[in-house]
Design a protein that fits this description.
The chain is an alpha+beta fold and about 80 residues long. It has one domain. It is built from 2 helices and 5 strands, in the order ββββαβα. It has a 5-stranded antiparallel β-sheet with strand order 4-3-2-1-5, sandwiched between helices. The radius of gyration is 12 Å and the shape is globular. The chain starts with a strand and ends with a helix. The mean pLDDT is about 95.
Length: about 80
């Protein structure tokens, strides 16, 4: 699989840029503001969640890179 991969939650309040099999950046909307968080995943439950994100399982949807970058560039 090539990186980065982009995903979002169904509600559109969290956007993800997955940069490696164990790293991602999250943009989270709270009210009208966006916050940026960087994660390095080390624990097994978190790795499973990251795998769900990569497989676009459950509430994760594939996100166009341009949509992520449009919000990220404003922060």
């Amino acid at each position: 699989m090539e990186f980065p991969q982009f995903r979002k939650l169904e509600n559109g309040k969290s956007l993800y840029k997955i940069t490696a099999p164990n790293q991602f950046v999250e943009l989270q909307q709270v009210g009208s503001q966006w916050f940026v968080y960087q994660f390095t995943v080390e624990q097994f439950p978190d790795l499973l969640r990251l795998q769900e994100m990569l497989q676009a399982n459950q509430s994760f949807l594939v996100l166009p890179e341009a949509e992520f970058q449009a919000i990220f560039s404003k922060l």
